[in-house]
Design goal:
The chain is of the alpha+beta class and about 170 residues long. It has one domain (about 30-160). About 45% of the residues lie in helices and about 30% in strands. It has two helices and six strands; from the N terminus they run αββββββα. The protein has helices at about 1-70, 155-160, and strands spanning about 80-85, 90-95, 95-100, 105-115, 120-130, 135-145. Strands 1, 2, 3, 4, 5 and 6 form a six-stranded antiparallel sheet that branches. The model has no long low-confidence stretch (mean pLDDT about 85).
Amino acid sequence: MGESKFRTMNCEKGQSLVELLIAIGIFVIVVSTLAFFILDSYVTGRLAQEITVANFLAEEGMEATRSIRDNSWNNLSEGSYGLAVSTTNWIFEGTEEEVDGQLQEGIRQIQIENISQDIKKITSRVTWQFTETRPQEIKLITYLTNWAKPMPPYLAQLHYRWRDDNGGE
């Protein structure tokens, strides 16, 4: 009788150890999964925030280029430029502009290509280093025309229609 009681206790001790190992394994899996999801959501949130900032900087580059065009079409010569503010106007300065204050190792560059005499292709590019091995880039492209150039007389005649006092043509 004493011997069977001893065997039952030994089996229960072994069973408790197996249950403990299974419980620890499940706990480790749950904790590591939660840690992965928390870390991944942090990284995704940070990337989304940096993409928003980079998109703003690229849009600002486009608006600055339009402003420079509005001041003088001749300021849009082919090449790569950075941006600066001179008193109250945007100007091109250098070949690129550092935007380290907003993005890690951030650079904004405006590229201008001649398509024709009155059309320019504008590329506003913002690059930055999200992590050491993960560079990022936002690139916006638009085409600007010399809208202030006078219209040739033959087109001006097609554009305007005169009306008499009665509303007829």
